[in-house]
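Entry type: protein chain
Record version: 2
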Amino acid sequence: MDKAELDDRFSELYRAHLKDVYSFAYYRVGNHHDAEDLTEQTFLQAYRHFERALRESDGRPLRPWLIRIAHNLAANLFRDRSRRPQTSIDDDDSTTILRATHTTEDLVEERDELSRILAAVQDLPDDRREALIMRFALGMDNREIARAMGRSDGATKVLIHRSIKQLEGLVAQTPTQGLSS
């Protein structure tokens, strides 16, 4: 395959999966700046190894491969940060949006529920959080998640089941902040 054809195929891959890679990165790292950096690094690394990935994929979709690259880069980011603790600057608008006051009780209750769920997701172990992000934020099936995480299909199914059960328990333990009757 010549360079022009390879570049065209990579451009297709990029357009098809940019949103998924960014979404995974955002849910994984929790802020837009780091998610953008992680997405850029993911596609740079993918480009370096794209020809080999095409050969080894046997026609299977490459989305799990991209998510695995993003997963590994996020793990490196967190490992590096744990070695050099940094002061967190909260540049995430979503917490402000979630805390905004609305006029209807239903909206307040729904936002409170969403806030509790998102907070509980952050309390899950990394592998469980990532499995749920891939499943529900990216809509990946168990086989894709298994490939992205380097696990068997059965182990992935068990991981997702346990993740959901743990998340349900965490949400149930979190007190509600909603309106009182």
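Comment: Residues 3-29 form the longest helix (27 residues).
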